[in-house]
Design a protein that fits this description.
heterotrimer; A: 306 residues; mainly alpha; MetI-like fold; 2 domains; globular
């Protein structure tokens, strides 16, 4: 257990280092931020001055050493576009993204998992078919399109919710429904199949044979065991979720990190992209660490094996 | 609190009783919400060059000189200006103006601001102020600006981007970073709250030196997706939505609660021609220009919201030669010219642009490709990521055709001809006719430093003839700007596509032109 | 299954059955409704798009792009993912540690940034798009295959084979891979559907297929502005996408039921 506790964080540290280095190199292979910042008709002299001001005229290795040194202290430099520290640019937008991601995850879990279980328990019957059809449709509709339809129907036609923006529960509804549909469909499928697997186990049959009511069996024994793959899966969804927020934020004018990242990439605002990827990678890593811990708690076998 | 409330109620009630009287001297009331594609990026007016990011500055900052709706220069913080000798401009400043933090606006503030922006590379707007050599302040209300060479356009530069006046005391106190976070100017609105990527708000500055602000609060909201932006307008969440796609013109006008406002914009769409061998031949460049049916494209793609052009400058620029009509659509003559140049079998060329940055860019590329195929040129569409495109422009590595939308920020042919067609400029680097020591080169150098206006105009007319007969670019049209506007407000669009505090009112007489119920 | 086959046939025959060249523009006939609607033009069964191009022809040609791209990406992602998963699960230790780190790096790397970086360096073209999508898909394969390999390597027959002196290559090739492949086939089919959707999402962000190439995802994202003005421009590509993803997924489920021994008979 102790060995595991030290091994995992080391693994994750390497992951974060790998991601930030990759981003550092990938950014510098393409485009020139100096040109993006100047007016549409820069002279060569103006471009060179701007490169000097941004510190881009130094050798790549030197830039990298400075970057790593500062990153250790949490300093990613001044944003090229915004003129304030890049880390604060990112952190200002993090709560909005976190709110969106968690409410979508919660919504997906609350709706999709019971649906998956319902389908598994009623395998082959109408309920199963209905749930699966819904899930497959959920996976077959691009969610940017779903988001726009929701705006047109509930924002413009019925005026039930604002078409976009941030600040109240009403603002949260359409974006989180869109994002929840995106991850909910696959969550329902996973819930169904892991429940099916559990239902087939001997101890479940024994429990049923002992005359326990179906829902007691499912909820008491089934859910606990089916939860392991589900938790893993939802943990993995974090990456997908953060990718999905980019699109949803773009459509619903949601002031989050995804939209910031997209803009920062277009304008080659290196410090912001680097800060954002570092922070996102850290979140991914922490969530995975948590998933690992939950996993160990849920499944004694894993705990012993380690 | 209650009393203020009561007063507000009373004012509203009075306003309802006698609308005309209340209108003429109304206290600021209500909210104005403007939706653009992207948010502001900084409150430092000298450190961004993005159009949508600069737009909010109009509400919080003043410049020395501004432009009226005909784009004529008008006094703002400077009451008057004159050229005292070839190299010196004298400006008299408005008296008693204060910044929002209580600091006095005087010649020291002007000197501080201009000294900041004229240092090459120190800010992102420095390219507009390179002609300034020195700024002198004989007394608090007089400024002398000395230029390196005669600069007929200096007043225009003071009215252009990046000329917003800053309070030196505030800057000293908070530094660059503080300025980037919070704006302090002399404008009709004060900085309110900035929730990044969600809303940027300003509140009325009741002590403003000029006409009182109309709204108690002005909010900018960034909504990137066009459909979402129009939806917010239709749903009544915003009052003005910029960049409405042409296909929605009718829909905006037919809803009864919104209407369309349009204006010619200060931008022309052209394809820059890169370094490919065939494009070095003047006959080929002319042939490509003759192969495009501008009128048809304007009607089909833009419902007429695109005005065909015949030369590099826009019809609304000083120095535009009105006697030159746009090229006729003449594929036969184009083919003949190609044959003369030795390309009777055509040649292959890439037609490039980014997507989503110039109005209808993807459509224009696809349509132009089809038309070039019509004269036997093997045209291929190619779409570039925006930074990739900027790199091609900046490093002068364009090959093939590249869609661009230049505009002169000084509304003068100088901003196109000299700035873009100079041998080392982004649009002139590839054009044989304008290289160093050619006749055209001498012509544009002379025009730039001529103070006498009629003479300058004559020179630019001559330049325009060369630019028509020996085109450096494939000219298309001048853009229109389309706005969706709520029936709650009246809005006057300007050719510089700026939304200024006094261009939006609640004046019922000026709303909608019959589109509002 | 039938649907998938039909789509493949259509893709092969597109030039023969499409009424028009999908790139031919007719600017005078923009946004015409389908034939059966008032104002519809009898030549254009499903109407025209914003450049006056025949939507039916574009859909037919779209089959030649959307599916092959998703298939190719899944295949490449599958080969890479299965190989790495096998090696990682079989040899464990250092190899395993490297592969799991790679997977985690890939998963925590913002995919959008990755896509933009690659597209910007190479310029957008279908081959690059396939690689980008493959980079997204290999992790799924690698994770699942690794887990299965771990389990199978512990089985008695594998241990027996190794005890009898079979080479490592032989053990992997003969004893493990055949047990992995059915599972991989299931993941693969499900992945194709996801990648078709992902391709259209990339188009929405301006990173997908570029004209003159036609793809359903690109059609759907280009036409989204016209949802209110001309519903047919988005509805038909959207339906096509839905139907194909639906049938590919059902095919995957069926495959799982047939191939996955643990689910068989239940």
């Amino acid at each position: 257990m102790m060995a595991w506790l030290t091994h995992r964080p080391l693994h994750f540290l390497i992951v974060v280092w790998g991601v930030t280095t990759l981003v550092f190199v990938a950014l510098r292979m393409t485009g020139d931020p100096a040109v993006m910042l100047l007016p549409g008709d820069p002279t060569m002299a103006e471009i060179n001055l701007m490169r000097e001001k941004l510190g881009l005229n130094k050798p790549l290795i030197e830039q990298y050493v400075v970057f790593v040194g500062n990153a250790f202290r949490g300093d990613f430099g001044q944003s090229f576009r915004h003129g304030v520290p890049a880390s604060s640019v990112v952190l200002e937008r993090l709560p909005a993204t976190a709110l969106l991601a968690f409410s979508a995850l919660a919504l997906a879990a609350v709706v999709a998992i019971p649906m998956g279980i319902l389908a598994a328990v009623n395998r082959g019957r109408l309920a199963d078919l209905g749930v699966m059809l819904l899930a497959v449709i959920g996976q077959g509709v691009p969610f940017f399109w779903l988001g726009l339809m929701l705006i047109l129907v509930f924002g413009v036609e019925f005026r039930m919710f604002p078409t976009g923006g941030y600040g109240s529960i009403q603002h949260l509804v359409l974006p989180s429904v869109t994002l929840a549909a995106y991850i909910g469909a696959s969550t329902a499928r996973i819930a169904r199949s892991s429940m099916l697997e559990v239902l087939g186990q001997d101890y479940m049959r024994t429990a049923r044979a002992k005359g326990l009511a179906l829902y007691v069996v499912v909820l008491k024994h089934g859910l606990r065991n089916a939860a392991i793959p589900l938790v893993t899966y939802l943990g993995l969804q974090m990456g997908l979720l953060l990718g999905g927020t980019v699109v949803v934020e773009e459509i619903f004018a949601w002031p989050g990190v995804g939209r910031l990242l997209l803009q920062a990439i277009s304008f080659r605002d290196y410090p912001v992209v680097q800060a954002a990827t570092f922070i996102l990678a850290m979140i991914f890593v922490v969530v995975n660490l948590l998933v690992d811990i939950v996993y160990t708690v849920l499944d004694p076998r894993v705990r012993d094996r380690r | 609190m209650t009393i203020v409330r009561l007063m507000a109620l009373l004012t509203t009630a009075l306003g309802a009783l006698c609308p005309v009287a209340a209108w003429s001297q109304a206290a600021p009331q209500g909210e104005l919400t403007i939706a653009q594609g992207t948010d502001a990026v900084t409150m430092d007016p000298h450190n961004t060059t993005q159009m949508t990011a600069m737009q909010p500055f109009n509400f919080v900052y003043d410049k020395l000189i501004n432009r009226d709706k005909e784009m004529k220069l008008i006094p703002e913080l400077a009451e008057s200006w004159k050229s005292v000798d070839e190299l010196t401009w004298e400006l008299k400043l408005r008296k008693g103006v204060k910044f929002h933090n209580g600091e006095d606006f005087d010649s020291a503030a002007v000197k501080f601001t201009l000294d900041r922006v004229r240092v090459p590379g120190a800010t992102q707007v420095s390219s507009g102020f390179t002609t300034i050599d020195d700024v002198k302040t004989p007394d608090p209300l007089t400024v002398l600006i000395v230029t390196k060479k005669p600069d007929p356009l200096l007043p225009a530069r003071l009215a252009a981007w990046g000329a917003q006046m800053l309070p030196p005391g505030y800057f000293k106190e908070v530094g660059v970073e503080g300025l980037a976070r919070k704006a302090v100017g002399t404008g009709p609105y004060r900085f309110g709250e900035w929730r990044k990527d969600d809303s940027l708000s300003f509140v009325a500055n009741t002590g403003y030196w000029g006409a009182a602000p109309k709204f108690a609060k002005v909010v900018f909201r960034p909504i990137k997706d066009e459909l979402a932006r129009m939806s917010a307008l239709t749903a009544g969440e915003v009052d003005i939505a910029v960049n409405i796609p042409v296909d929605f013109a009718d829909k905006i006008n037919s809803g009864g609660s919104t209407y369309l406002v349009q204006t010619l914009a200060n931008a022309t769409d052209v394809f820059l021609m890169g370094s490919d061998a065939p494009l070095k031949d003047a006959r080929v460049r002319l042939a490509l220009n003759l192969a495009i049916d501008r009128q048809k494209l304007s009607t089909a793609l833009f419902r007429g919201f695109a005005k065909p052009i015949s030369q590099a400058a826009a019809p609304t620029d000083f120095g535009y030669n009105p006697s030159i009509p746009p090229y006729p659509y003449d594929p036969e003559r184009a083919k003949k010219l190609l044959a003369e140049a030795g390309y009777e079998k055509g040649f292959s060329v890439e037609v490039q642009s980014s997507t989503g940055y110039i109005i209808g860019d993807a459509l224009v590329v696809e349509a132009v490709v089809e038309m070039l195929k019509g004269i036997g040129v093997e045209a291929k569409p190619k779409f570039l990521e925006i930074a990739r495109r900027a790199e091609m422009l900046g490093k002068r590595t364009i090959t093939g055709l590249l869609l661009a939308n230049p505009g002169s920020t000084t509304f003068d042919a100088d901003g196109i001809v000299w700035r873009l067609l100079h041998p080392d400029a982004i649009g002139g680097a590839y054009w044989p006719t304008g290289q160093k020591d050619t006749d055209f080169f001498k012509l544009m150098e002379t025009a730039r430093y001529t103070i006498d206006q009629p003479k300058r105009q004559e020179l630019y007319y001559k330049a325009a003839e060369t630019l028509h007969n020996d085109p450096p670019w494939l000219y298309l049209w001048q853009e229109f700007a389309l706005y969706g506007v709520s029936c709650k407000v009246a809005f006057q669009a300007r050719i510089d596509t700026m939304i200024l505090p006094w261009t939006v009112t609640t004046d019922p007489a000026k709303k909608g032109g019959g589109q509002c119920k | 299954m039938m649907v998938v086959l039909t789509v493949i046939v259509v893709a092969l025959l597109a030039p023969l059955i499409a009424p028009f060249d999908p790139t031919t523009q007719n600017l005078a006939l923009r946004l015409r409704p389908p034939r059966w609607m008032p104002g519809g033009d009898p030549r254009f069964l499903l109407g025209t798009d914003h450049l006056g191009r025949d939507i039916l022809s574009r859909l037919l040609y779209g089959t030649r792009v959307s599916l092959p791209i998703a298939f190719a990406a899944t295949t490449i992602g599958g080969i890479v993912g299965i190989s790495l998963g096998l090696l990682s699960g079989y040899f464990r230790g250092a190899v395993d540690s490297i592969v799991t780190k790679l997977i985690d790096i890939q998963l925590s790397f913002p995919f959008i940034l990755f896509a933009i970086a690659v597209m910007a360096v190479t310029g957008p073209n279908p081959a690059v798009l396939v690689l980008v999508l493959a980079a997204r898909s290999w992790t799924t394969f690698a994770r699942v295959v690794r887990g299965e390999t771990l389990t199978i390597s512990g089985n008695e027959y594998v241990l027996a084979a190794r005890a009898l002196g079979a080479t490592q290559a032989r053990v992997i090739g003969r004893h493990i891979t055949p047990n992995i492949l059915p599972l991989a086939a299931v993941i693969g089919t499900l992945d194709v559907g996801a990648l078709v959707i992902l391709e259209s999402t990339l188009s929405f962000l301006g990173l997908g297929i570029q004209p003159p190439t036609v793809s359903w995802g690109k059609e759907l994202s280009d036409a989204r502005q016209y949802i209110q003005l001309a519903w047919w421009t988005t509805t038909f590509p959207g339906l096509a996408l839905l139907v194909i993803v639906l049938s590919v997924n059902l095919l995957g489920d069926r495959l799982r039921d047939i191939l996955d021994p643990r689910l068989r008979g239940r």
